[in-house]
Amino acid sequence: MALSVDHAYKVFGRRPKEAVKRLQAGASRDDVKQHGTAAVIDASFDVKVGEIFVVMGLSGSGKSTLIRLLNGLGDTTDGSISVFGDEIVGMSAAELREVRRERMAMVFQHFALLPHRSVLDNAAYGLEIKGVPLEERRERARGWLDRVGLKGWADSLPSELSGGMQQRVGLARAFAADTQILLMDEAFSALDPLIRREMQELLVELQQELGKTIVFITHDLNEAMFLGDRIAVMRDGKIVQLGTPNDILTDPANDYVAQFVQDVDRARVLTAGDVMEPPRAVVPASAGPRAALRTMRDMQTSACFVISSGRKLVGVVRDKDMLRLVREGSANINDALKPTPSIVTPEQYIAELFELSVESPLPVAVVDEQDRLIGVVPRVTLLASLANLPTMTTEIPIIEPTPDVPRAIITATLDATTDGNAAPDEGLTVTEGSAS
Ligand SMILES: Nc1ncnc2c1ncn2[C@@H]1O[C@H](COP(=O)(O)OP(=O)(O)OP(=O)(O)O)[C@@H](O)[C@H]1O
Ligand SMILES: [Mg+2]
């Protein structure tokens, strides 16, 4: 565990200890008002090493207060907070400075750059505090400026940079400080939406590369959902729900959370793995064209997936081609195998599936690392998932597209032929061109 918070309280005001005692006995935030403002009430959670832990909630819900308890900028009224196993409640100011310097860098909403220092020396600031010699810290900071897309700006002053660029300096400074934990309080909230998105993506990229532990505060649920491995939702000082983005989206603990969730861009939260359904239009490669035709007829599809032993997805076949093979008396569907038009992994966001889904006549195929077909996402499922309708039904969903070859023709062809035997019925006059 990088951080462990255990029954932590923070009350501002004249008699904080008294307020905590009453809160612990069941009093409400309003009940203890005369003793002080209860900003954090009974918070308990762990943050794992390498996790992005998001704290979300409306203004005044206690997010900033909570994050400041984690690095000792605010003193905890009651409860315990440990950083890599070291209890920080009760540490001296000097010890806390040491913890902040060595273990936790912080990024704020308003950049907090030093105006008279160059971009480079701002980025090197955390290293300076650590006592890293000038040349070395400048070299390391320069590397980080490059990394966040600020190559060539090292000698500028912060005032010469746009807001988004200044926040990049803030990020470079935090990463350069080389602490295992980053605390970010509304770090991207002052940025324009597009730049904000870029910064979120950059953060995720750096986090994946470096395995930092990040506590990220935001009041934007889309941001929370995009960044968070887990999200704690705060209301009036309390954590009212703690879960994965998917938990929070699909099973909000109460109306407060549900209201947040209403506005979320589900397409960037839900993944193919969250919404996929069992594949139905599937035949083994060893099956003949007749079996493939029968499957397509029963599923009313014009194509089906072909799998080899071990469920590996090897491609798709079309009804027209299977009809031809049956008429020719061929027993091998591999002769007409086509590449699967759209394949995704279960981790891909459904936002990425729309284009694939429109381009492909078949549902989008979901495969695991071993190329095994583990599910499909039909178009209706994609749409249903956006509206939060139940996606798993007991009925077979409408799988795109409708068959090219009418069922009657397939049935007639199957009846008129036998397995492995090219004996087309002479009376069978329907050709593909005349199918309607
Ligand atoms: N230094 C302080 N002294 C007294 N009360 C404070 C202090 N800091 C915060 N509070 C109170 O604690 C509560 C939580 O404030 P906090 O700043 O943690 O909220 P927040 O969730 O970060 O809000 P925002 O989204 O607006 O930043 C508020 O009622 C606030 O007025
Ligand atoms: Mg705040």
UniProtKB/TrEMBL annotation:
The keyword Transcription regulation does not apply. Residues 14-261 form the ABC transporter domain. One of its GO terms (molecular function) is ATP hydrolysis activity. One of its GO terms (biological process) is response to osmotic stress. GO terms for cellular component: membrane. Keywords: Amino-acid transport, ATP-binding, CBS domain, Nucleotide-binding, Transport. Residues 276-332 form the CBS domain. Gene3D superfamilies: CBS-domain (3.10.580.10), P-loop containing nucleotide triphosphate hydrolases (3.40.50.300). Transmembrane segments: none annotated. Belongs to the ABC transporter superfamily. This is Glycine/betaine ABC transporter ATPase. It comes from Leucobacter komagatae.
